[in-house]
Design a protein that fits this description.
The chain is of the alpha/beta class and 432 residues long. The protein is 29% helix and 24% strand. The chain is built from ten helices and 19 strands. The strands form three sheets. A nine-stranded mixed sheet has the order 1-17-13-16-15-14-5-7-6, with helices on both faces. Strands 2, 3, 9, 10, 11, 12, 18 and 19 form an eight-stranded mixed sheet that branches. It starts with 5 loop residues before the first strand and ends with a helix. The structure holds flavin-adenine dinucleotide. The site of flavin-adenine dinucleotide (FAD) has 45 residues, from helix 1, strand 4, strand 13, strand 17 and helix 9.
Length: 432
Amino acid sequence: MTSHLFAPDYKPQPFWWERSPLSAEPTPDLPAQADVVVIGSGYTGLCAALQTARGGRHTVVIEANEIGSGCSSRNGGQISTALKPQYDNLRRKVGDQLAYDILKEGHNSLQWIGDFVKDEAIDCDFEICGRFYAAHSPGQFDILARSIENPPKGLETDAYVVPKAEQQVEIDSPDYHGGVVYPRHAGLDPGAYHKGLLARVRAAGGMVIGQCGATGISGTAGDFTVATANGPIRARDIVVATNGYTRGLSPWHRRRIIPIGSYIIATEKLAPDLIRRLIPTRRMINDTRKLVVYYRTDPAGERILFGARVSIAETDPTEAVPALHAELVTRFPDLAESQVSHAWMGFVGYTFDEMPHLGARDGIHYSMGYCGSGVGLSSYFGTKIGQQVLGLKEGDSPLTQIDFPTRPYYWGKPWFLAPAVRYYRWKDARAA
Ligand SMILES: Cc1cc2nc3c(=O)[nH]c(=O)nc-3n(C[C@H](O)[C@H](O)[C@H](O)COP(=O)(O)OP(=O)(O)OC[C@H]3O[C@@H](n4cnc5c(N)ncnc54)[C@H](O)[C@@H]3O)c2cc1C
């Protein structure tokens, strides 16, 4: 019934893997010991490893599946100032100064990743293209417009309101009631970015080994042993960088991370005139619905990549295509006949306080919980955790001052997700 939605060359895998396929290299032998073992080969793990390898530590990154096959080669490539809490809400919880310092980290991460990609000359289509945050109701437009008024000094961000009457400059969609443009937000090709990071870690002397899942950690700070599918490895320091894929290896983290599936489709190549009319400025786009929707053109400006949470329970990405396509067509009725060339999903790591967390527990370093905004944050905090392993002051972050919360009866399976999705659907539908 829905076969007309699928392009003849449809693939149930990330569009980004066309340019940057996952490596099929054979798994090398695991060394018996290292100074630093990093568990997880996404942006967090690789950025930590880059620091420790360049700092002269023998560094081994181990990855349960193909290198980079977690979120870091699957995401939408959108980069913002990223931290979710609003200043007024956060200051009530942690006080004025710490709230300021924490939110400043989000701003720092945006600036940092632009500088980093440039300094490292990573070829990943990084572009400061800006973001259009679209309001899905007149009431949400008012809230959005107010949200950029009078930011605390030091947390100002370039932003301006686009009323509905003028929104055609940004987007040709009947679904929206104006929005806000953040001109400094950026986009990149996540697969190419990951590939560039991997090359830099290896050039610095770090080993990165795929198909080598960690199954247990024993020992104490300074003398750990990591059990893996390929035998044990001893390490002075360990970094856990498993984010939304955190499972039984580290139960304490698992109780604090909520894995949530996010699903994306890529359209077939669209007519150049059509795509230029639909998204003239080629900005990153998301909207005010509680059930997050994010989309953009691909870097070549030929397709639209559209991501959302459309199912109540986790599902196969191919199964999600009809619902994702329907959401796309709500924004762009002209795409009713368009076909889908790729569909995929990945698990973002959410947290109960909507903030990332990094630090060390029982001598084990970790950074995770970017709540779906991890391209900039995981790179920035991964770098910081690598600096913390080296004992460098630059690795300090105000986020180490806050507790990493869990909830009673939460053991890592988000049983509350289905009712939450239903509730947000209802809320989004009635927002005025
Ligand atoms: C569909 C989707 C769209 C997204 N879009 C955006 C976006 O537009 N902008 C944005 O900022 N963020 C986005 N994100 C989030 C962003 O991709 C992540 O926050 C970021 O990639 C996290 O990087 P990471 O290295 O911490 O985790 P990951 O890249 O997920 O890496 C964790 C790795 O740990 C490995 N692992 C787990 N357990 C073990 C073990 N026991 N042993 C060894 N390895 C293990 C996993 O296999 C995995 O490869 C999106 C995520 C998804 C899924």
